[in-house]
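My current task is to audit a protein record that another person submitted. Alongside the sequence sits a line of tokens, each denoting a local backbone shape. Please read both lines and tell me whether the tokens look consistent with the sequence. Do not assume that whoever made the record got everything right. Thanks in advance; the entry in question is below.
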Amino acid sequence: MIVYDLACSRGHRFEGWFASGDDYARQRERELVRCPVCDVASVDRLPSARVNASKSAPPAEATSKPAPTAPAQAVAGLPAELIAKLREIVQNTENVGRRFPEEARKIHYEEAPARAIRGQASPEEAEALRDEGIDFASLPPILTDPSH
């Protein structure tokens, strides 16, 4: 197993674990290596400070205590607890799906009760909402995709 430090074109840093350097190259070529924060496939390896001991190095002394484990880390340096709380907040919004632009307009123009919604909008629909002064934010896949 090989661990690479990676960064997407938007500056999010994360780790990737691969069976080999060739495995990383194949996955990257097929755009399977994606940023877990923004889901872009433009990902590059960063220089790593990790040092791997050679196979000829003497084994480490056995101890009765297990090695300390690092606290769970979330993506992009955010604490795991924060990611969990943000996911909980997102799950407590109403998913209006492709009706997002329509529902956002109704809420903005007070034709529907104010409430927290989420859904999808095309780039053109998003631009039209912004032009109308309707505030919204895109959610990264790490908050909306249960597989993350």
